[in-house]
Amino acid sequence: MSISRLAREIEESPTLKLNEEARLLRERGEPVIHLGIGEPKNKVPIAAVLNSAARLRSGDVKYTPADGTPSLKKAIIRYMDEHYDKVVAPENLIVCEGAKHALFNLLFTLVNHQDEVIILAPHWVSYPEMVKMVYGVPVIVTPEDGTFHPRLEDIEQAVSSYTKAIIINSPNNPSGMIFSEDFIQQIVAFCEARGIYCIMDDIYHKLVFDGKRATSAYKYAESDLENSKVIVVNGVSKLYGMTGFRIGWVVAPRKVIEVMLNVQSQTISCPPIVSQAAAEGALTGVQSVVEDLRLTIENNRNVMVQELRAFNGVRITEPEGTFYCLPDFRAYNNDSFELAQFLLRKALVVTVPGKAFGMEGHLRLSYAGTVKDVTEGVERIKWALDPESPNEIYIGDRKLVRDWL
User: Fold this and answer.
1) Which pLDDT score is estimated for 26?
2) CATH number, position 376
3) pLDDT at 298
4) What is the pLDDT of residues 11-61, one digit of tens each?
5) What is the pLDDT of residues 171-196, one digit of tens each?
6) To the nearest whole number, what is the mean pLDDT of the chain?
7) 280 and 356: one domain?
């Protein structure tokens, strides 16, 4: 069978692969704890359910405009005004099948063959692969000071005449770090001055803790959206816990949106109308559901940090947002893939190797599930790795004895 070289070079998503392994283990009746998934266990907001159900009951489930229904775009425009203090025209906005699809369409629109895209480590696993899929070159920039926070001086050294864009994800997946306001101001000014697109992946922008806020890049961008290099990607998956509906969007200069519209109309035609109705319901419905979810996740974060700080040899930087933390497990194993496989096999706990995020020796742990998942999951990991933990443990109804330390 002849497969394209480009397709062969795209790496498998480690998160989706682990999700599938966990599903198969659960189908066999194994008591797996999933600390790898970026998906809260909340119920979808009732306003989203009712709005999508109303669309289904009408029987009018047809094509929509390729850039999204006018009513959903109006809801997003209102959202931008309320949460970004930015007035956006319908022509500056396109609705896609999730923020992931939105980002891919955007890169397809912007990046020429061999153009470089700066990606800040730790980074979401899909950024480098998406850049490669549009024949661009991902350039990974890792902070030289050993933290999870990027530095402008490191980025400046990585920028070349081929640099087309920089992707900023704050709050950050996988570290949970919120980038400082000073950094956002600096990077926006740098991109505007150098003519580089500043792509803000804001999918977690309201899932923040301890009274903190994620700074909007628009605060420091050119007032005229048409001349600014700032582009914002967002969606309903994380903030409303609506991962299965697959609705995201891009806010950008009209010329960018026009080309994205052509790309989208020739590929997916349009986002599904039922999902768009659900997203509209979420955005226009009672917003207390967002705060309820945020408080739940913040409590889970507190439990996760408390459990990990009692773990000998593990170092953790406390997350300021998102569903994730990225503890350092190098005291036990420098190979994060090997460590993740070991924990799944021995302790039936799903984790995600830090190497996939540009941070070898770390594991990404999600606290998007329940407090029970967090406490029991970390307890199992400690049992598997820490010689000072008890030698015996119950996993499900089975008593296991550690015999490898």
Assistant:
1) 85
2) 3.90.1150.10
3) 98
4) 887 777 777 877 888 898 899 999 988 889 899 999 999 999 999 999 999
5) 999 999 999 999 999 999 999 999 99
6) 95
7) no
- pLDDT of 314 reads 97
What pTM did the predictor assign? 0.95
CA dist., res. 381 & res. 359, Å (int):
19
Instruction: Kindly state whether residues 54 and 29 are assigned to the same domain.
Output: no
**Segments of the chain with pLDDT less than 50:** none
Quick one: three-class SS letters along the chain?
CCCCHHHHHCCCCHHHHHHHHHHHHHHCCCCCEECCCCCCCCCCCHHHHHHHHHHHHHCCCCCCCCCCCHHHHHHHHHHHHHHHCCCCCHHHEEEECHHHHHHHHHHHHHCCCCCEEEEECCCCCHHHHHHHHCCCEEEEECCCCCCCCCCHHHHHHHCCCCEEEEEEECCCCCCCCCCCHHHHHHHHHHHHHHCCEEEEECCCCCCECCCCCCCCHHHCCCCCHHHCCEEEEEECCCCCCCHHHCCEEEECCHHHHHHHHHHHHCCCCCCCHHHHHHHHHHHHCCCHHHHHHHHHHHHHHHHHHHHHHCCCCCECCCCCECCEECCECCCCCCCHHHHHHHHHHHHCEECEEHHHHCCCCEEEEECCCCHHHHHHHHHHHHHHHCCCCCCEEEECCEEEECCCC
Same domain, 194 and 98: yes
Tokens 């795209």 identify what position? 10
| pLDDT recorded at residue 44 | 96
CATH code: domain of residue 154:
3.40.640.10
Given 284, 301, 323, the domain boundary residue is: 284
Same domain, 165 and 100: yes
| Paired sense of beta strands 33-34 and 349-350, if any | parallel
Q: What is the pLDDT of residue 20?
A: 81
State whether 15 and 114 are in the same domain: no
Is 23 in the same domain as 134? no
Q: Are residues 258 and 304 in the same domain?
A: no
Looking at the structure of the chain, the number of domains it has is: 2
Tell whether 177 and 257 lie within a shared domain. yes
Q: What is the pLDDT of residue 54?
A: 97
**236 is in which domain, residue-wise?**
46-284
End residue of a domain, out of 240, 259, 284: 284
